[in-house]
Amino acid sequence: MPKIVRRLATMAAVVLVGGLLSATLVRLAPGFDVDEQQLDARLSSESVATLRRARAHDRNIAGFYLHYLGRALRGDLGESRTLNRPVRKLLAERLPVTARLAGFGLLVGWLCAVLLALGATMTRRVACDLAATVLGGIFLSLPAAVLALLFVFANAPAYLVIALVVFPKVFSYTRNLLAKSYNLPHLLTAYAKGVGRLQVLIWHVLPVAGAQLLAVAGISVSIALGAAIPVEALCGIAGIGQLAWQAALGRDLPLLVNLTVLVTVITLAANWGSEFAGQSFRTSEA
Amino acid sequence: MRYLRKSAWLFLVLVALASLGAGFWAPADYATQFREAPNSPPSHQHLLGTDEVGRDRFSRVLYGTRVSLLMAPAAALLSTLLATLVGGVAGYLGGWWERAAMAATDLFLSMPWLFLLLAVRAMLPLNIAPITSVAVTFLLLGLLGWAASARVLCAGARGLRDSDFVLQARASGLRGLRLLAIHVMPNLKPVLLAQFWISIPVFIISEANLGILGLGVEEPLPSWGSLLRELESFTSFGFEAWKLVPLGLLILVVSSFQIILSRDEVYA
Fold it and tell me: Where in chain A is CATH 1.10.3720.10?
């Protein structure tokens, strides 16, 4: 129990510092005080002055951040400047879209990676291993944005881009891990005693490799979220990746800070969740 | 595997030489427009055709390769230096320093790399001179890409700090920077080199992502990212295959790095 409390406290600290850092970076960014609306020739000098006054309270970074935290505790995440909508509503609308996209992508990517890694390791055929390695290598060399563009062109589902981004990393790790597990001396004994391949996999390989594979699951969530930005921006999917893209281009401070905090929380939760799952897996095996 | 690695090295050297000599064998400058021939297919005059504003694609690929292939190692050098400073020194010093450095590393690693890059890049002015945009893009890659390497270097330095020979050196009266320079750093060299080489393809791909999203190197200066933006107007694989040359080159170069790096996996 104290471990969970410590983890939650660390997560809260990381989120607070991460939010403060992102707010500081946005505040220090050149042109922060300039609003595109101020360039509108139709606006009177009074209107421009009103716009400047409206942004003035954001100048003090500590003040802005404390004000933001206070409101966030009451459930008010502020309003997006570029989209003129409450940030909470935007996140509530777009988070499920990204969750679905990343979820499907992760599922397909993991399935392909684990099955191919198992095939390459169990068959022990050089051709099979080489083909899988070359395939993984090609996708590892392709930027997510290029894949997204090609998938838009081919009219293919966007979640497959996420799958292809996740696949090579999981495949390479899984294959190495399985190869190591299959080389353990007790497996030789099991084979000598006539234990079948499937039984060896279920009883001897997966318990060894499973915990470490679960640890990669957390990292793959971070990879999928990162890939969601170009995928959603280029495929026109209204998720948080596209929102981050719009917020970054429009220098939308409230939205950017909230997104930073949200993405950090999701990534940390995924990492620690997979770590706990791995530990539980090891404990149950022991 | 040895021959494959040698071929990868040879390919990278050839590509680097070709891009460095772009001024000699490129038929035109990267910004020169042939207004009478926009979007033209390959010909004797334009080996890879021209882009939508009539610039020679072959020349742009050569100059773009120069930008990406020279600046990515520079960014990798910067990130490895930062990682050494944060991770290596913290691992060597241990205690509070190590905890603080690892907390900072965790903070950086808790945000997806592209998200962090995109957010910080967008906070800088978007309309800047092309040459400044090259510096800004790769400087950001270098400044933000140190965290993963720092973690590895910290673990390496921690292992060395507790090793017998460092203990013996300490017992002999060797301390501080001298101990770090004479015993710790030389033994960290393989890890440092591995991290440096690993960062290069990561930065090349990140620049390509940023370029496609319009946050990389500014026009008219080409880079692989800005060259790949052309794929947005791509209409057919069969009829416009020459437009895929920058993409093919990117895949081959990054794959070559991966083949070379496969030897260094043990340090990564």
Answer: 90-249
Q: Residues of B130-168 as b/e, b for ≥16 C-beta within 10 angstroms?
A: beebbebbbebbbebbbbbbbbbbbebbbebbeeeebee
Of A144, A122, A133, A103, which Cα lies nearest the Cα of A191? A122
Q: Which residues of B touch A153 (CB under 8 A)?
A: 231, 234
Q: Which amino acid is at B120?
A: V
Q: What is the pLDDT of residues A220-249, one digit of tens each?
A: 888 898 889 889 988 889 999 898 888 877
Closest CA to B250 of B53, B19, B3, B52: B19
As a whole number of angstroms, the distance between CA B200 and CA B188 comes to 19
CB B156 within 8 A of CB B191: yes
Asked if B212 lies within 8 A of A25 by C-beta distance, the reply is no
* Residue A211 to residue A221: CA distance in whole angstroms: 17
The residue-averaged pLDDT of A82-111 equals 91
Report, in angstroms and rounded to the nearest whole number, the Rg of chain A calculated over CA atoms: 24
CB-side exposure of B29: number of CA atoms within 13 Å? Answer: 5
Interface predicted TM-score (ipTM): 0.83
Q: What's the rounded Cα separation, in Å, for the pair B109 and A71?
A: 27
Within the 244-263 window of chain B, which residues sit less than 8 Å (CB to CB) from chain A? 247, 250-251, 254-255, 258-259
Lookup: tokens for B90? 């913290």
Beta-ladder partners of B33: B55
Measured in degrees and rounded to the nearest 5, phi and psi for residue B244 equal: -85, 0
Give, as one character, the DSSP assignment of residue A200.
I
In order of their start, the domains of chain B are: 2-21+56-267 (1.10.3720.10)
- DSSP-derived 3-state class of residue B52: coil
**Min Cα separation B123/chain A (Å):** 5
Cβ-based neighbours of B256, under 8 Å, separated by 6 or more? B8, B9, B11, B12
Residue listed under structure tokens 């990676």: A113
DSSP B234-258: ---TTTTGGGGHHHHHHHHHHHHHH
Distance CA B265, CA B267 (A): 5
Tell me the pLDDT tens digit for each residue of A57-86: 666 667 777 777 777 778 787 788 788 888
Q: Domain A90-249 - what CATH class?
A: mainly alpha
Decide if A90 contacts A241 (C-beta within 8 A): no
DSSP track, A23-72 = HHHHHHSTTTT--GGGG-TTS-HHHHHHHHHHHHTTSSHHHHHHHHHHHH
Are A25 and B111 a contacting pair at CB < 8 A? no
Q: Do A267 and B110 touch (CB under 8 A)?
A: yes
- Residues B166, B179 contacting (CB under 8 angstroms): yes
Mapped onto helix, strand or coil, the DSSP state of residue A142 is coil
A141 vs B254: CB contact, 8 Å cut-off? yes
